[in-house]
Design a protein that fits this description.
The structure is a homooctamer.
Chain A (H helix, E strand, L loop, with lengths): L8 H5 L5 E2 L5 H14 L3 E4 L3 H10 L4 E3 L4 E4 L15 E5 L5 H14 L4 E3 L14 H4 L4 E6 L5 H6 L6 E5 L11 H8 L6 E3 L5 H19 L1
Parallel strand pairs in A: 1-2, 5-6, 5-7, 7-8, 8-9
Antiparallel strand pairs in A: 2-4, 3-4
Helix pairs in contact in A: 4-8
The structure holds adenosine monophosphate (4 copies) and magnesium ion (8 copies).
Chain lengths: 223, 223, 223, 223, 223, 223, 223, 223
């Protein structure tokens, strides 16, 4: 199948091999899940459409496919039901209701890696008053994952208000000049408020990896 | 010289002919100023570098060249000295100190057309607390001209907080992913906060024209 | 569902919360409509494909789904049947027959906000003589919403001919170098005729919000 | 010098070899001019800055450097002084005063090839009334070269009003969203008015070549 | 339906109103065809997918829908069957077999306007020897329409070999860096061989309009 | 059908005519295959979706359609089953499992031309240790075809480690900022490690053609 | 001067106000430095060309202008002389010698904020063996700032090899397809190796701010 | 100075370390040249403007600075004087006279590496007859480096005519839609004629490295 799974990735980098589902044939997906399940037990596949996701869930009945974030997991304890925590070392803040799939991808990945994050949803700049009640708890986090489509202004606003480093995740929510997420990505990268770094469009997974590495280093150091 | 000045523009559109200085030869600029001065008396030339601007000021000693906004005027009563008004029908709000040239271009043009605007400078989202004291007065304006470079988030924040229509002016302030103003322009166009429309990058002149037309229609109607 | 509806938006900004339908799950759409209907009664959802739109119309039988502009409304008195007014404070002018969906989105939103606009359709620059009979009435409006795809030249022509401020709406009508609306958007932004500001591609909603804010300020002031 | 001049081009294509001046060293320019002068006598070099242009004029005192269009000629009878003809088989129409260098490049090239064109300048869409008096004569031409920067709307307007085929020449006049001429180029290419074809940005030379070929074919046919 | 058909276009510009089919509802298409058929009798609709095209053919049984070029006609005498002429005043030359839909759009439009063109297909630069036998006849044409996707080199090659003016039509044939036709369009615009002008990507209609206007002017003059 | 197959291509260039399947009608594909089969016997068609591919396989039962690389062949001896060779004059190295379709397109084309390449799959920079065991054999090849999506870093790493010239093939694997393969393409083109040249996105065919030409010249010379 | 310095930024966000030097007039720069020096004593100005930088150094003789990174500081203890530390909580790794200005901007900013980083220079992927000796110490850091121009592959390679979170800084080093840093930026954003987030092109300042916030949170937590 | 020269590069990759001159300070350049001269004796620095190049030539009087290709060399035997060979294993073909700097960069680099190439200049598609006399000798080469700006059509034409693999080098010669070389680059990448691979814009160095690696492998194999 042309697959060469990286079983030592967790040891080398602190993040286990996670399967990138997009563009793989079902045959490749089945092989990858079976192989990983046999070695590292818990398995995560990202960016799966309903068709491939349901096929995996049928092939591996102990696994679950989460349609909103497009994830398949096996042997992990991912739990996406809300209410979500309003306070955690890693807080996920999303700007609009349509950003939820990306927020849940980040949420699930952090859970998969072993950290339970918090999540505050739909508090974008069109109505900033929705954000302010959450600020005190947000400001206590170690790292923020801030998710926004359209003009992507929420990371800038938060970076000007609190001392927590922010991983910005631009989303493809919007139309026309949002350019499928290019615009919020560019906006976050050129923010006038320092303390923001950015991952790929819709990349909840990448933000979770980065945040988990930051949290892991902290724990390692403080011991 | 290939020039065909539009002497009836003020009557047709409410905005008199203003000379676009960039890319014109000195010969063309002298001809245009002389011609307009002879007809409509007050003359405005925009987007003039120091070299062309000073040449005009030498040729027409009664005129003045303003280097920061790159404007030359003759027979008008433009006055750019601060303190600027904190309250006016048309309020200009700028995000950063480096946006001043564009803010002053808008300011001077409105004065040239016959309206004295207000101006609040350097209140961008990196420190939103600088904006809040001005909100009550800003919220009484008829129209806001909101100027921002980098990620261009200030119009979004203001549109979510007050009922005044906003003309966003993206600026070329920034570097790298600000793409010489393309990024704040795209961001303003795809804002999640409704009530914003946008003019060209660094186009203080265009924002002033639009705002003046809005103010003019209002007065006409109320009489 | 990750939704946090902004019930105070109308009071703060003069424009009530309108649901952005694209990218939301049916579950999210039902929740949003039910929630808003319970609070502010009249509800508007924009950018809905036929599938989601009809599902909403089935779930809320008192509501209506308008397929051409992709809108769902509840408890409002939107009426899109023509003949449309040829004279109004806010006039909508569209360039081509294929721009009608965007024109009707702007039309419906203004009605939803409480203003009945006028609408003149298919008077683009390929046959300018179609525009001229409407000029006298157009010139009396307080604000124009001018909609055009392809090269987007209509706002420039109108701005040179009348004193009314123009909100340009570029559309994705065209192919190849129209770049899904990027070209008319860039063209409107760099118009040589002053008095134009621009909203996002196909954004009839945004143009209506801006125009309504302009009209509201005028009324407030004249009282 | 790495040069291989195409002496048979005039015979093959009807357009003699013209030297592209940009990016050539002075050594290369001198060699090219000397070589061509020895063979086909009349010589034209385009896109020359003042430095290279004056060097050529000094080296070949019988030649002339025209600074506005950036051209050097030898042994031809180019004459750029106005008044220009208002009627001709090939009419050049330019939108703004700053488009003059491109208009004169087209003008000079047509003269060099043996045709005397007409030229009407600064009649862009910001004041269309300036165009209308010229329409009757323009409509009698065999081909129009229509030059415009910024939003490039003039070709669309003309194509809707007269039966003459139009070669659109976008110019780099403008700033910000005019994207150095990309915007008027895209706009002309996606015009809703049929009968327009387009050449490179600022390419007065190319428009003249195309127009001359059209005129030549006509003459050939009518004999 | 928001339609305002331009019945006087043929008289003004020499090209009758042709309906742009893309993005119009079936209701709009039926109305437009019925309206035009009642006035100018022969009707042409372009850019129609199979669904809309077949619906028109069913509604108007005397009309015909041509699926390859996506055209519907009524009361005209379009005939696309080959063999096509190898010699004509307007010659259409296409580079690859997959460019045929665009070539036939140009072919049909010229026939609709009243001129029978020639057509030589699949003679692109990957095998230039296929082009050479056609050169003598091609070189006698009054105008060439040269159609190419991918790198779009065929117009350059032809412009260097013959004295006929060339209208280049870039096509969306290709993938990856052909950028849906942007690359051949840019290539044709920046050709080193003079005598080429360019229309929109896949725009056989536009090339035919331009060519027909050129041919019409020629005939007018020679009488 | 507008087809003009290039039967002499193999003789002129060393690479026989291969049919580009995308955008051709079934009628055109059948004609092309029948025509080529009658002349040069072995036939290859690239870039075929399942629908067109299966139609060809049904029409020509002796042929085979390979769905993963989207190829149809007739009378050749293409064999894509692994294990693949780990050593060969032309080695194909692919970065991720999802790049397999492109790797197999290159593989099949080389086989079709008469060379059996090697293939090492899924050894991208996320886990470079997977590459190192293959380095000694890779370093003995005459040419490498290195395939990578996302950031496209694998060619850079290999070019820094071994003396074999590399043909980089960027793929459209990825999302967001991978820009459908534009990003790895740009990255490979601007590599800091010399010895890389690049073909079109997903263009396994083009890489195979180039590599085969390199191998052919070598053999010719050494005799 | 239109300046409104944010004196409370250090308290709110942990990062004191730093003056963005580009595009400010000398008058504005003098005012800003004087104002900040009077309040928070130590002052940092970024992105200063030699002209403005030397003017500041002359106006404030106790300050220093560092030409390579384009920084001016007053009352801080920035020291850029090497040898630099090979081990630190925040390690800066740069790919090429020409990336030094950006590396030193990050270095100086971290020192200004109170952290002494390490720096390893010129260890890019063209010669990966230069990197390997540093890996053990690099792997002990809490955060890496990895700086690369051209194809920007170094962050990917490092992320695959060690567990430290990486802030990627794309630089404008390169030409052509490096697109002034857009290419390495896109490449870092779409890396196949998880654990990377990205800041603006050439933005050593932004990387330092983000890293310092990460380090600060860690210290706060461990106490 | 932040430099870490890669002394083992020649052994690993067959191409010795060559200094990238752009963006390095004079201090860095002097250090690099001195260091390399001490180890590998012959030194090459690329992409040097006249200022830096002359400074190097003054510091190292035995070295030479070649202004046209912007190269500095020490202890090598580079000789750029023409006549150049018309036949060689590696033939450099350039389209226009203004492409000479890139052609000479490739020429000098190949000489530096130990191979004397041939060079045929100014034979672009505007006058293809200039190319044909050279075809027999060109067709005997092992590899072609084909250099073209503007529309970059020359590699396509050559790939259709001869069996030699082609390394295309797009140049920044041109203006407007040549997009500083992006257009010929895209065109070469999407050529319909197989057997072309492409390097960065103006990258004569990269083409020479690739060609030299190809030639080296051939020799190794044939022994
Ligand atoms: N058609 C539309 N175009 C642009 N913005 C819209 C549109 N419809 C609603 N919105 C705005 O989009 C914002 C985000 O939407 P939501 O995801 O519903 O919270 C809302 O607050 C609306 O102001
Ligand atoms: N295939 C086509 N490509 C470009 N323009 C077209 C095409 N077909 C028709 N048109 C033009 O598009 C204009 C706008 O179309 P409509 O929306 O039908 O008014 C018409 O006036 C036609 O001149
Ligand atoms: N997968 C492919 N990618 C790029 N070019 C191809 C591919 N397959 C075939 N070609 C080339 O595309 C050219 C044009 O295709 P055709 O339309 O079949 O004449 C052919 O001559 C082939 O050299
Ligand atoms: N080199 C830099 N890159 C990006 N942002 C910066 C840089 N230097 C300062 N800034 C930020 O830019 C913001 C706007 O700058 P100012 O115009 O000085 O108010 C400041 O608040 C800083 O946070
Ligand atoms: Mg919301
Ligand atoms: Mg500030
Ligand atoms: Mg119409
Ligand atoms: Mg004018
Ligand atoms: Mg073919
Ligand atoms: Mg993998
Ligand atoms: Mg180095
Ligand atoms: Mg030449």
């Amino acid at each position: 199948q042309g697959l060469n799974l990286d079983m030592r990735r967790g040891i080398r980098t602190g993040i286990p091999e996670v399967v990138f589902g997009a563009g793989k044939s079902k045959k490749q997906l089945f092989t990858a899940v079976k192989h990983l399940a046999g070695r590292q037990q818990k398995v995560l596949v990202t960016r799966l459409g309903a068709d491939a996701g349901n096929a995996l869930a049928q092939e591996f009945p102990e696994g679950r496919y989460f349609e909103v974030p497009g994830l398949f997991e096996l042997n992990s304890s991912i739990d996406l039901d809300h209410p979500w925590n309003g306070e955690a070392e890693a807080m996920i803040i999303s700007a609009g209701g349509a950003d939820l799939p990306v927020a849940l991808e980040a949420y699930a990945c952090l859970e998969f890696f072993g950290h339970t994050p918090g999540l505050v949803s739909d508090v974008g700049v069109a109505g900033l008053h929705r954000l302010f009640p959450h600020l005190p708890k947000i400001s206590k986090a170690r790292i923020l994952i801030v998710i926004a489509g359209m003009e992507g202004a929420l990371p800038s606003v938060l970076a000007g208000l609190c001392p927590v480093p922010i991983v910005g995740v631009p989303t493809s929510v919007g139309y026309g000049t949002s350019l499928n997420g290019i615009t919020p990505m560019l906006a976050m990268l050129t923010s006038c408020a320092p303390g923001i770094s950015v991952v790929n469009i819709d990349n909840g997974f990448g933000a979770a990896c980065f945040a988990f590495k930051v949290l892991s280093r902290q724990r390692a150091e403080s011991s």
